[in-house]
Design goal:
Layout lengths: L14 H4 L24 H13 L13 H10 L2 E7 L6 H12 L7 E5 L3 H9 L21 E9 L2 E9 L2 H9 L8 H5 L2 E7 H4 L5 H17 L8 E7 L1 H6 L3 H18 L7 E5 L15 H9 L7 E3 L11 E3 L6
Parallel strand pairs: 1-4, 1-5, 5-6, 6-7
Antiparallel strand pairs: 2-3, 3-4, 8-9
Bound molecules: guanosine-5'-triphosphate (GTP) and magnesium ion (MG).
The site of magnesium ion (MG) has 4 residues, from α4.
């Protein structure tokens, strides 16, 4: 039987090569692009669009969407910055942790940290919307993050009278899961090499499920191992291990078992990967509880404190001083752009 040609109207999608839908659909029949031929590019239309841009004489405001790698360079050039990698399987709660933190800032200072600005406000608003009453949903919801390049959310924070930028990386969980299958998938993950703090999320709801427990417990060390094998953590970032969806854990009849499992995961990771990370911390969070009576954002204040804590690891190490020039006594271990 002849093979059927796989076509997709989204030119960015590589489903024909990788078998993965860029829109994140497992059921391809609901993807609006799959199975359709890409449209011809209309040069005339492009010219019209360019004319409209040229004729515009208003003020262009920034789109305030999450940043790509180049966008983070501009932030880092302005202020001292902390970059945070948030890692976990699909649905682990990565985007919800970022959205929950932004929503906490709207209530006032978070722990010792005061909100001082952001260049990604529209990005924050769109990931928060579906968890708010204004969305008119019965339950909080979070869109799956689309596969593709990593994106960064930005908050400036005033802490102890000093201003710092916080850049939090968000990427589709499927891409992190693929590192467990093939370590080389971590090669292009810029956020891992550059992060000051790596944050590994453990999905509390799945850990409480008898059918998912073994997979959650087994996959986390495999993901970290794949990243380590790729030399992702040469800067020795700090490592936060975070149990998410604590409301689901507390409501479970297996609550004690889940808490015990989480402690075992945290200890196992700390013991196995001690040489690759600086400081370790473990946290329990509830970023987006299903029940409106449960406090939204619990535990994120302590996590933020850990994120903002200066990393003890020096970026340069003194070596033998020979000829009297101080600069010759320093060896760069890793450049700031990874
Ligand atoms: N009960 C409960 N559900 C949560 C919590 N945090 C997130 N969720 C839900 O878990 C699901 C996945 O959350 P996301 O934040 O989108 O997960 P993600 O890790 O970003 O997922 P991908 O983008 O697919 O990798 C959504 O339906 C959320 O509403 C929580 O604290 N409690
Ligand atoms: Mg997400």
């Amino acid at each position: 039987m002849a093979d059927t040609e796989i076509v997709c109207a989204n030119r960015e999608c590589r489903i024909a090569q990788s078998g993965k839908c860029i829109e994140g659909h497992d059921d391809l029949s609901i993807c609006p692009f799959y199975g359709r031929v890409p449209e011809e590019i209309d040069d005339e239309q492009d010219d019209d669009d360019q004319d409209a841009v040229d004729a515009f004489d208003g003020v262009h405001l920034p789109d305030a969407l999450p940043l790509d790698r180049g966008g983070t360079d501009k932030i880092i050039a302005k202020l001292p910055a902390r970059m945070i990698g948030v890692i976990g399987g699909h649905d682990a709660g990565k985007t919800s942790v970022i959205a929950g933190l932004y929503d906490l800032f709207q209530l006032g200072p978070v722990s010792n940290n005061i909100f001082a600005g952001s260049s990604t406000l529209h990005g924050f608003e769109s990931i928060c919307h579906d968890a708010r009453a204004a969305s008119e949903r019965n339950e909080p919801h979070s869109e799956r993050t689309k596969r593709g390049e990593v994106r960064f959310y930005h908050i400036d924070v005033r802490r102890n009278d000093a201003l710092q930028s916080l850049l939090i990386a968000d990427r589709s969980g499927e891409e992190y899961e693929e590192v467990a299958d093939l370590a080389a998938n971590a090669t292009d993950m810029f956020e891992l090499r550059r992060a000051d703090v790596i944050t590994i999320l453990v999905d509390g709801r799945r850990l409480a499920s008898p059918s998912d427990r073994a997979d959650v417990m087994g996959s986390i060390p495999l993901i970290i191992m794949g990243m380590v094998e790729n030399g992702a953590f040469l800067r020795k970032p700090s490592l936060a291990i975070v149990l998410t969806k604590d409301d689901a854990v507390q409501a479970s009849t297996r609550k004690e078992r889940v808490e015990q499992d989480f402690r075992a995961i945290a200890k196992g990771v700390q013991d196995e990967f001690a040489d690759h990370f600086g400081e370790f911390g473990s946290f329990v969070t509830c970023a987006s509880p299903a029940d409106t009576n449960v406090v939204r954002g619990a535990g994120l204040d302590k996590l933020l404190d850990f994120w903002m804590k200066p990393t003890a690891q020096p970026k340069a190490t003194r070596i033998h001083h020979r000829n009297g020039r101080v600069f010759d006594g320093l060896a760069i271990k890793e450049t700031s752009d990874g």
